[in-house]
Amino acid sequence: MNKNTKPTIIETKNLTIGYTSKKSTTVVCKNINMSLQKGQLIGLVGANGIGKSTFLRTLTRVQPQISGSIFLDKKLLDTYSNSQLAKTMSVVLTEQIASKNLSVFEVVALGRQPYTNWLGKLSETDMRMVNLALEQTNIGALKNKKCYELSDGQLQKVMIARALAQDTDLIILDEPTTHLDMYHKAYILKLLQKLVKETNKTILFSSHEIDLAIQLCDTMVVLTNNKVITDAPCNLISAKVFEALFPSDLIAFDTKTGSFRVKK
Ligand SMILES: Nc1ncnc2c1ncn2[C@@H]1O[C@H](COP(=O)(O)OP(=O)(O)OP(=O)(O)O)[C@@H](O)[C@H]1O
Questions:
Q1: What is the interface pTM, i.e. ipTM, of the complex?
Q2: Which atom number of ligand 1 is nearest to the Cα of residue 175?
Q3: Which of 107, 194, 218, 246 might form a disulfide with 40, Cβ 3.0–4.6 angstroms?
Q4: What GO annotations for molecular function exist for this entry (predicted)?
Q5: What is the pLDDT at residue 98?
């Protein structure tokens, strides 16, 4: 399918993000105009401290924008009720899960909260969705383990399974590959790519793994000091966008391999 024919899932108009206190306002990024299409794997990249987490926290309504608008499925994000939002978007932020005493199954089942009654009793559909999420992330064998018994890579799969069990069109993850070794970074991002293909969900994640994101993403959002650029990785390479991401004294982007190299 031509990517231009896919409908938009999330769009920002003149969005300014940052932090407001009684005394002052700190702008992190201003006038972000971005449109992301459904059914894609989308990587958000940028240097340390540029504002990736702030951006994702704003898109997921964890913190308010300073100004401008966010549209989710063409509807203003601010107008969603909490329950509507929980059925449209699932979120995995960097904070560790509250209780590592829970079993893998119990954590994944938390994803069904928007659908269960106040007792939290799981219906047949809920059970089916939890088991499907465990299967899609290949962690069925771990389901009775306590989360404190898991490695960081296994825990990340559990958080992805919880988001899948929530059964939303959009999944947003902040740095899902932090603390993982090279193999597991690639494993998790490949898993996200597979899930997009199998389920036609949209997955937006932030990462410092620019080389991997270039290889696996349909679209990348690049945050720089003065603008936000959204395009297919090959177009971003041609436009020399990655060259401008970091100071050029230590590393350089190699257009041929699509990766960064240390200057000798
Ligand atoms: N609670 C806060 N109050 C004020 N400023 C903050 C707050 N949290 C973050 N910032 C500032 O906002 C800017 C963007 O931070 P953010 O964490 O969004 O960047 P990031 O791109 O996710 O960084 P990293 O890649 O290092 O995780 C930074 O200058 C940071 O100091």
A1: 0.97
A2: 27
A3: 218
A4: ATP binding
A5: 66
Residue 77, token pair as written in the block? 């994000």
**How distant, in Å, are the alpha carbons of 8, 22, 65, 78, 191 from that of 81?**
20, 27, 17, 8, 31
> What distance in Å separates the CA atoms of residue 119 and residue 121, rounded to the nearest whole number?
5
Q: Which of 51, 32, 62, 52 is nearest to 176 (CA)?
A: 52
Of the candidates 81, 80, 101, 89, the one whose C-alpha atom is nearest the C-alpha of residue 36 is: 89
Contacts of residue 214, Cβ cutoff 8 Å, sequence gap at least 6:
220, 233, 236, 237, 242, 258, 259
- Residues near 101 by beta carbon (within 8 Å), at least 6 away in sequence: 146, 147, 148
Per-residue exposure over 32-49, b if at least 16 CB sit within 10 Å of its own CB, e if not: bebebbebbbbbbbbeee
Which residue's structure tokens are 């949209």?
Answer: 202
CATH tag, 1-88+201-264:
3.40.50.300
C-beta atoms surrounding 61 within 10 Å = 17
Alpha-carbon dihedral sign for residues 109, 112, 118, 123: negative
Within 6 A (CB) of ligand 1 lie: 19, 26, 28, 46, 48-54
pLDDT attached to residue 1 = 47
Q: Which atom of ligand 1 is nearest to the CA of 56?
A: 18
Handedness of CA 186, 91, 138, 150 (dihedral sign): positive
Rounded to the nearest whole angstrom, what is the distance from the C-alpha of residue 26 to the centroid of ligand 1? 10
Position of tokens 């899948």? 164
Please give the distance, rounded to the nearest whole angstrom, from the Cα atom of residue 170 to the centre of ligand 1: 23
**So where are the chain's domains?**
1-88+201-264
User: Which residue in 257, 263, 226, 264 sits closest to 244, CA to CA?
Assistant: 226
pLDDT per residue over 136-158, tens digit each? 999 999 999 999 999 988 999 99
